[in-house]
Amino acid sequence: QVQLVESGGGLVQAGDSLTLSCSASGRSGRRYAMGWFRQAPGTEREIVAGINWSGGSPYYADSVKGRFTISRVNAKNTVYLQMRSLKPEDTAVYYCAADQHSLGVVVFTTPGEYDYWGQGTQVTISS
């Protein structure tokens, strides 16, 4: 079992920046691909960014390309999501997720492919 805990959410103004963190604990010795998802009220959960174990070729949703950066420090079991130039439409609960089935190689973009989820952190952008 893997436990994921997100932090760093909050209320900021449009144009501001935030950095989310996701700390993983529990089952060690496995390689996980990680994803950041978000869900606004009345919408489906959608991928924001994903990163494989090595950190190469991260995936970004079109809506956040050029504004968000995903990174990871495996030695700290932590994944980050740097968010810049935030917009009101970025308002959502942000979740991190871990996928173990690809052995950390493949970044999946659908929630159903992920095995473990954090509890989420609220990000609110005021206009």
Characterize the main sheet: 7 strands, mixed
User: Which whole number gives the mean pLDDT?
Assistant: 94
Distance between the termini: 40 Å
Helix content: under 10%
Report low-confidence residues grouped into runs of 5 or more: none
Note the overall shape. Answer: globular
Describe this structure as you would to a colleague:
There is one protein chain. With 127 residues, the protein is mostly beta strands. It has no helices and eleven strands. It has strands at residues 2-7, 10-13, 18-26, 33-39, 46-51, 59-60, 68-73, 78-83, 92-99, 116-117, 121-126. Strands 2, 4, 5, 6, 9, 10 and 11 form a seven-stranded mixed β-sheet that branches. A four-stranded antiparallel β-sheet has the order 1-3-8-7, with no helix packed on it. A hairpin with a 4-residue loop joins strand 7 and strand 8 (78-83). The protein is globular. The N and C termini lie far apart (40 Å). The mean pLDDT is 94.
Compose a concise summary of this entry:
By secondary structure, the protein is mostly beta strands.
